[in-house]
Amino acid sequence: MIEPIGNQYVVARPVYSTKAFEEEHKKKHRHHKTLLDHLKKWFRCSAQKAKRIALSLFPIASWLPAYRIKEWLLSDIVSGISTGLVAVLQGLAFALLVTIPPSYGLYAAFFPVIIYFFLGTSRHISVGPFPVLSMMVGAVVVRLTPIADTADPTVTNSSVANDSSLDDHKVMVAATVTILSGIIQLLMGVLQLGFVVIYLSESLISGFTTAAAVHVLVSQLKFILQLTVPAHADPFSIFKVLISIFSQIEKTNIADLVTSLVILLVVFVVKEINQHYKAKLPVPIPIELIMTVIATGVSYGFDFKNRFNVAVTFRDTIGDCFGIAIVGFAVAFSVASVYSLKYDYPIDGNQELIALGVSNIFGGSFRGFAASTALSRSGVQESTGGKTQVAGLLSAVIVLIVILAIGFLLEPLQKSVLAALALGNLKGMLMQFTEIRRLWRKDKYDCLIWVMTFIFAVVLGLGLGLAASVALQLLTIVFRTQFPKCSTLANVGRSNIYKNRKDYSEMYEPDGVKIFRCPSPIYFANISFFKQKLIDAVSPLRILRKRNKALKKIRKLQKKGLLQVTLKGYICTVDGFKDSDEELDNDNTEELDQPINTTDLPFQIDWNADLPFNIMVPKINLHSLILDFSAVSFLDISSMRGLKMILQEFIRIQVDVYIVGTDDDFTEKLARCEFFDDEVKDSIFFLTIHDAVLHILMKKDYSTSKFNPSQEKEAKFDFTINTNGALRNRECQTLGQNTFKNSEASSSTLQKVQHLFEPLCLIPTKLKQ
């Protein structure tokens, strides 16, 4: 019964062990589905299931019929035009990251959008080139491009037209990688593996994208400075590129450098204005478009191409493609999740995999490269009023117009301008360095993941860096569970609340009771650590062996008649009994590890009392151990064996062990694995720490009372929480006047019982006789 009183409550219920609770409250039988049941459900066919599958594969069938033309169409048109202009420029700029001619970036900005319009579940993301993915594809292209051709002095960045065969090879590699990545994404979606993105944490993605931004920055320096830089794709390649750039810095094309710096400065300033006044501006200022038009006109009008010689516009790749597929999906899904929460509509991770996979297969077939979503482009689509993917479709129409009608107008555009525009879109990623300070204050492990992910991706390259970062992240999880912060608990506030005894000043610990908490799963990697932490104060195996050795000595003394037992204790009839310590030390270890058996002796041994002459055994003041497993979600077979050995060691030195806070699945698994036997019984499980503490106090106290066995069996104790947070007895006078009177308890026994319970105000409310 629970009685609320203001912001406090009063509870009256029996002390429950898990077994007693299950006996009193019968559990309902639940049928747990087997693998066969899931397979039957998966392959079962019905009209409703077919309709549901069709709607899930083509989400457009769900939202397009409900499209509000009058309310949404104008907003989508404005958003589509703005997003399309940005997509054109980003497609051209990010193609340089793939090391292919810029025109192919328009294909990557067009075809994936068309497919996503029909298959995607997000209404706000803009699918197309993403700088990190472009950089990862570019790394594969560089690695698979013939070294001799790449280093050929006739193939330079300042050439008006690159060698067609080399360009065709690069485009083919980029398209092949894109198609293979799309196939991987499609298979993952069909197999319902969208959950794989959970292994890429926010810290890892942030550190990885920041490192990718650094790679992009370094890769674009050769276009800004217009230098001939050999391609490098192995680990430490970023440092080799920097060495190559600085070794020929005197060959910089001043026209390209000045143009790039001016554009970078203007783009950064205008983007800050857009960010600062985004609430007042109806649409962001399309600075990329403005600068592209100006730069193209200036380059054409002043004939930069001729006057300043400026530049104008398979092996094993499964691992690279898998990394591209995962990163592309992770970025797109994380951005889509933000907008789905903001506008309250559902998204499906598996369907997103299918949509992105088909988009990349389709785009790669038309010689595009890997697509995901760019944060800046999606932000433009959402901030300019985009409501649905109709805006995305209209942005694809803008790209198509550029491809078919006005693409020739961009021929005078310098590569350094596109490089500057690409760097201008990295501002948000490079600003992620500020995350280090925030993560250091909040979580040291997440900060370590961010820093190491950045270092791995910069030093080892994006592919190997991603793999190493995921491995490090999983290793930190193992490390946290392998070395959990175990603690010893005590009572706080004289109530049913138990906290770390090091954290509070006014704590109460029942004599002889130790409460130990493990805050993580217990498995093969941390069972040794768990055992070591548990036996730091008491080494049960050592004490058990000492007691068994002492028992052998006592048996010898008793058989020889040298030891007598009186009411006052032991009497040794010889002054100097010496046994062969060497003989005892050479005893079989397995024999010393067995439970102590004193049934053959005519007396009982109190191991905490003074033993006969020459017999020393460590004394312990612990009689009960409570293990708080409320945070232990599972045990494996190896840790189960280790846990049972630990329990047996404590039980054999007469320390009662109780386990509290476990769920039903936990105990059921132990029963299935034959964990319980004559020593370790299922009665050691209790619902809460407080139940176990009350049980111990009653057991240790009333085992010495003057109840007869039938009275002890019928005794039932109820406790109630007082309104001040403490535990009180509602019938204290009845307890003192009737119970102990009927039991013929002496006044000293009554005082002893009351003294035992008073520190916690734990007094039984009723003793049935």
TrEMBL record:
Claim: Ligase is one of the keywords in the record: no
Superkingdom of this protein's organism: Eukaryota
Example of a GO cellular component annotation carried by this entry: membrane
Compartmental location: Membrane
TM helices/strands, residue ranges: 77-98, 104-120, 132-151, 171-200, 253-270, 282-302, 322-341, 353-370, 390-410, 447-479
Membrane topology designation: Multi-pass membrane protein
Primary localisation category: membrane
CDD domains: STAS_SulP_like_sulfate_transporter
InterPro entries tied to this protein: S04_transporter_CS (IPR018045), SLC26A/SulP_dom (IPR011547), SLC26A/SulP_fam (IPR001902), STAS_dom (IPR002645), STAS_dom_sf (IPR036513)
Pfam families: STAS, Sulfate_transp
GO molecular function term, any single one: secondary active sulfate transmembrane transporter activity
Domain STAS, residue spans: 503-696
Keyword field: Membrane, Transmembrane, Transmembrane helix
NCBIfam families assigned: sulP
PANTHER family: SULFATE TRANSPORTER
Name of the protein: STAS domain-containing protein
